[in-house]
Model the fold of this input.
Amino acid sequence: MKKEQLRMQMLAGIITEGQYVAKLNEEQALGTLFIPEEEEDGMIEYYWNDDKVMDIIRNMRYDNPEEITKEVTTISSPDDFLKMMRNKMGDQDLDITDLTLDMFRQSIKDEFEK
Done:
């Protein structure tokens, strides 16, 4: 569900503000942070959406969002992020479609607030 649709539900009293925030945090990272591209061999490869990564990090109120975004998007790939989350959660069946924006935010906090 799109952010605007959720906001309208909240304004109409269908969902609470807490439910609105929770649903936003559950939003899939795929299509937002990760851009799928079909390769010549038919395999799907995922790439960072640098603008969305920057938006999320900027909204987290870091002093240096450009530097953190550059570090995240140049040092690791979406596949690296998936592997890290599999290890962290102990779930080797975790798929890239299972990753949420909240998971991404938490990993940024864990890495850059040490």
Notes: The beta strands are 34-38, 44-48.
